[in-house]
């Protein structure tokens, strides 16, 4: 299923006048604040979010999984689906692979296919939280932290193999998330488990190419429900500092206990030069992996406020951090969900760019909390959608990606091509 430039042109023609009207209104509004809308359109257009290869099919829970139909059956079909998203919004120009769910059998052919869709490969993810058929040692009781050296060695080898795949595809980072932990008090020696993990990570770190990073992802619980070896940002930060400059922390928005101030964590990691990347999603209770910005758009905005506050300009910000989604779709069409996530992330980014930083600095110096809220609200309550639409139109993408996706009946066509019960590897 290909979305052609004439599909896009036809669609953009139908919304042209309405779009121009709302864009002019926003440009006028921003002009009064001495903000050049074209500068923001540029920044929005340049902001790319990587799509997780494991979130292109229907997810599920232990209570059930409801097939979506037309799910990608291979890595090649996954790349086509991400290519389709990128054709629609011109902001999904990267794919993050998970190994062994997405082993590139022929890396040259896979890279060529990705090039054809204007896609690059973001961080590659290792998987030592599931046992593969031909695996010698089980990860039931952990991997890099395991009490048995042979299990740790097996997990280290897997991570080094994942780096090899990533190198062949042009990726520049390895994401390590460990399910390692315990379900019951007394089950694990916390200190030993962390020390084992640190030693194992050192061996992986030594295998990193010089221009690579290792991103250490933390999570407070699940699949272990009493303790996780890397439960919080502090432990990930500790390990990243012990490993070296190429080790950073990855912040998955769903990996925080309720009401955690994630924007403060982001501010500190950024200040310490240890913020490596994000897994964007949203949640109400646990690691729900819901559409980014669908429940807490203000938190997403506040996170971008800290990101812009802590870096010298949009360019530096964009280039030093891995921007990735991590989601699981139980009821929504995965492609629509991902389009909405990218839109919400871009809205938070552009709204944060609208914050009057000088005014914010002044009201903070004057200890004027109400004044500070007014500055943030002016930006957050600005409807930036016409600006994002314009960024897409200027890059020959769809003014309204979901509208065009539905008008073309993409899901229906994918079901005709791939069948109603095709299942994608992943979560
Ligand atoms: C763990 C996690 C991690 C991935 C997995 C797919 O919850 O967020 O990033 O490896 O989801
Ligand atoms: Mn994640």
UniProtKB/TrEMBL annotation:
Family matches, as Pfam families: AP_endonuc_2
Key words of the record: Isomerase, Manganese, Metal-binding
Region of interest called Disordered, as start-end residue ranges on this chain: 1-20
Ranges annotated as biased composition (Basic and acidic residues): 7-20
Domain Xylose isomerase-like TIM barrel: 104-289
Molecular-function annotations in GO: isomerase activity; metal ion binding
Keyword Metal-binding (UniProt): yes
Record's keyword annotation contains Metal-binding: yes
Name of the protein this chain belongs to: L-rhamnose isomerase / sugar isomerase
InterPro entries, A to Z: L-rhamnose_isomerase (IPR050337), Xyl_isomerase-like_sf (IPR036237), Xyl_isomerase-like_TIM-brl (IPR013022)
């Amino acid at each position: 299923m290909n979305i052609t430039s004439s599909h896009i042109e036809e669609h953009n023609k139908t919304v042209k006048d309405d779009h121009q009207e709302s864009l002019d209104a926003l440009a006028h509004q921003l002009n009064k604040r001495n903000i050049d809308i074209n500068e923001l359109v540029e920044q929005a257009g340049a902001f790319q979010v990587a799509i997780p290869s494991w979130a292109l099919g229907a997810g599920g829970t232990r209570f059930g999984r409801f097939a979506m139909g037309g799910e990608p059956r291979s890595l090649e079909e996954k790349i086509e689906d991400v290519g389709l998203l990128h054709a629609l919004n011109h902001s999904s120009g990267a794919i993050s692979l998970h190994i062994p769910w997405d082993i590139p059998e022929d890396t040259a052919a896979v890279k060529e296919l990705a090039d054809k869709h204007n896609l690059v490969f973001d961080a590659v993810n290792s998987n030592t939280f599931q046992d593969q058929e031909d695996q010698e040692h089980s990860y039931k009781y952990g991997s890099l932290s395991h009490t048995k050296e042979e299990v740790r060695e097996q997990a280290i080898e897997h991570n080094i193999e994942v780096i090899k795949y990533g190198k062949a595809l042009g990726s520049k980072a390895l994401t390590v998330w460990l399910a390692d932990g315990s379900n019951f008090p007394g089950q694990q020696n916390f200190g030993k488990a962390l020390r084992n993990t640190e030693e194992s990570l050192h061996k992986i770190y030594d295998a990193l190419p010089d221009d690579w990073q290792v991103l250490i992802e933390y999570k407070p619980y699940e699949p272990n429900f009493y303790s996780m070896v890397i439960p919080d940002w502090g432990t990930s930060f500790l390990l990243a500092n012990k490993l070296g400059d190429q080790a950073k922390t990855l912040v998955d928005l769903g990996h925080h206990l309720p009401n955690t101030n994630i924007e403060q964590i982001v501010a500190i990691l950024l200040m310490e030069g240890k913020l490596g990347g994000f897994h964007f999603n949203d949640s109400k209770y646990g690691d729900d992996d819901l559409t980014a910005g669908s429940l807490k758009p203000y938190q997403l905005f506040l996170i971008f406020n800290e990101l812009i506050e802590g870096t010298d300009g949009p360019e530096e910000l964009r280039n030093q951090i891995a921007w990735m989604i991590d989601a699981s779709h139980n009821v929504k069409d995965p492609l629509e969900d991902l389009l909405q996530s990218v839109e919400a992330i871009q809205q938070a980014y552009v709204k944060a760019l609208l914050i009057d930083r000088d005014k914010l600095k002044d009201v903070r110096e004057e200890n004027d909390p109400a004044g500070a809220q007014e500055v943030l609200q002016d930006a957050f309550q600005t409807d930036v959608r016409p600006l994002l639409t314009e960024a897409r139109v200027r890059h020959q993408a769809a003014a309204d990606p979901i509208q065009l996706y539905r008008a073309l009946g993409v899901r229906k066509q994918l079901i005709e091509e791939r069948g109603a019960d095709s299942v994608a590897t992943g979560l």
